[in-house]
Amino acid sequence: MLARLSDSLLESCRCDPAAPFASDPARDFGLHKDESLSRFEALKHYLDEQQQLLWANRRQAVLLWLQGPDCSGKDGVIRHLFRGLNPQGVDVSNFQLPSHTEREEDFLARYRRRLPAAGSIGIFNRSPYEGVVGDLRDGFIQPAQSAERLQQIADFEDELAANDIHLIKVYLQISPEEQLKRLRKRILTPHKHWKLSAADLQAHRQFPQYQAEWADTLARSHRPSAPWYVLPADHKWLRNLLLASLLARQFEALDLHWPTPPLPFSLAELEQN
């Protein structure tokens, strides 16, 4: 699998619980944009084939949890990476603030409802950890409850593994300068105004606080069996290649092959008058 990035490079993005966001979100690992774009396109062809194999076997599923600040590119990487794959085998779920009805049920219930079926790739745009960070910030839970919720999520992750749903947890890290640049571009681009909300301004002004909250959560929820990967996302082309490489590596580990069930009828039977 020559197109994907090396294990050593990918593992350098593995979360360090002592300092989850210590690395520079603008680093490029010495890679070049044009070559990386070519590798990304090659990886998309590989992922298309692997998705077909996953669908043909229908025994396992892959689930991607995407987290990151506003403007970090969660929507963009989903659009670029999964464009062209068979829609019946990809399920994207975009989790906004819980509705009143969802607030009245277990906080994990809405995520359970959107789990991918065997043979599918599921993408969660925002993860269950919003039920820790966001709910704590908005006053829906108390600090003492965060540990309980983190344990519930850890149990949920173990449950996924037991049911052959292979989880990849990714945090897209951008700098406040890059976030400002992207917010400014949205303001100056009329057809992107729909993406803006008053909460975006608040989040940008409180960027250090929000990052501190997420750093604490990543440190407390990073486990060998369910690690976080913190991907530098100031460069969109690199962000896309890193995520595609993580997904490709997961498929390599699955080692999928075309199933060979017994034929329900023979060629002779088909051609028999």
In short:
The protein is 50% helix and 11% strand.
Quote the average pLDDT: 96
Structural class: alpha/beta
With helices defined by DSSP (H or I, 4 residues minimum), what is the helix count?
Answer: 12
Spatially, the strands of the biggest sheet line up as 2-3-1-4-5
User: What Rg, in angstroms, do the CA atoms define?
Assistant: 20 Å
Beta-strand segment tally: 5
Q: Give the domain tally.
A: 1
**How many strands, which pairing sense, and closed or not: the largest β-sheet?**
5 strands, parallel
Strand content: 5-15%
Q: Percent of residues in helical segments?
A: 40-55%
CATH architectural designation: 3-Layer(aba) Sandwich
Q: How far from one another are the termini?
A: 47 Å
Poorly predicted tracts of residues? none
